[in-house]
Amino acid sequence: MSQSYSQAVKTAQEYYNSNDADNFYFHIWGGQDIHIGNYAHPEEDIAVASGRTVANMAKQVPKLNADSRVIDLGAGYGGAARSLARSYGCHVTCLNLSEAQNARNRLLTEAAGLSDNIDVVDGSFEQVPFADAHFDLAWSQDALLHSGQRAQVLGEVDRVLKPGGEFIFTDPMQADDCPEGVLQPVLDRIHLETLGSFAFYRQQAGQLGWEEVNVADLTPQLLTHYSRVRQELALRREELQDKVSEAYIERMIQGLGHWVDAAYNGYLAWDIVHFRKPA
Q1: What is the pTM of this model?
Q2: DSSP letters along 6-21, please?
Q3: Phi, psi of 139 (to 5 degrees)
Q4: How far is CA 190 from CA 31, 85, 166, 202, in A?
């Protein structure tokens, strides 16, 4: 299946399948989720802040219930899916390209007693392996940046959503007024040529005829989150010695620093973005 992925997605798949990356994200990034948190204060636990992001997003989708069919695009370890299934009784399909993350997701989901509510599917959001008009809600957290074909991803979201279906997501973006070239250290670290921007997503939504339901600008949380993860990695470095290579830790500390610098300088943006497909 991976042979049909774009180069950006193949690169992300290889990265997240590596033992270094899998252990870093599982042990440092909160263990359930791999996304940006909403922090009550800068020293808050990463997992708690990450859970708050899920809760804040879910509150924007008041129709979630036991009949809802949800697809989580780039689901990581499935923390959001388990939270949604537990809170609302909905059925969630986790679509994710990393087999390593998916294996952890299945184990965590089974341990939580939620296997009947959650399916974990190996695949890419550039080619969603489901029929047209299959889902009530598409959900994604900090994953779309890994695609080199983001317009195609949104087209796939539109295709698999039912009429009147909703799409809510977060993504690290470049600010709409970001100067050219300043994000190169960030892009080099994650092997991407570009980041999306809110202007891009709004333009694509307009072309698809989607209604803009709400945009919550939470950009300061991006700076807090990357600073917090970098701090946690430095504090727990010795603990990771048997799990993550020293070379990876060094690269990650440096890479997180690039994200912190770019966020501090106002070159990045992070929003909860909510669109609705026409009924």
Answers
A1: 0.94
A2: -HHHHHHHHHHHSHHH
A3: -130, 140
A4: 21, 31, 29, 24
Query: Rounded CA gap, 105 and 99, in Å?
Result: 10
Residues facing residue 94 across a β-bridge: 72, 120
CB neighbours (10 Å) of residue 19?
12
Residue 20 to residues 62, 88, 227: CA-CA distances in angstroms?
A: 38, 34, 20
Which uninterrupted H or E stretch holds 140? strand 135-141
The structural domains of the chain, with segments of one domain joined by +, span 2-276
Q: What is the second-level CATH architecture of the domain 2-276? A: 3-Layer(aba) Sandwich (3.40)
Residues 201 and 15 sit within 8 Å (Cβ to Cβ): no
User: What is the predicted pLDDT for the residue at 33?
Assistant: 86
pLDDT tens column, 120-159? 999 999 999 999 999 999 999 999 999 989 999 999 999 9
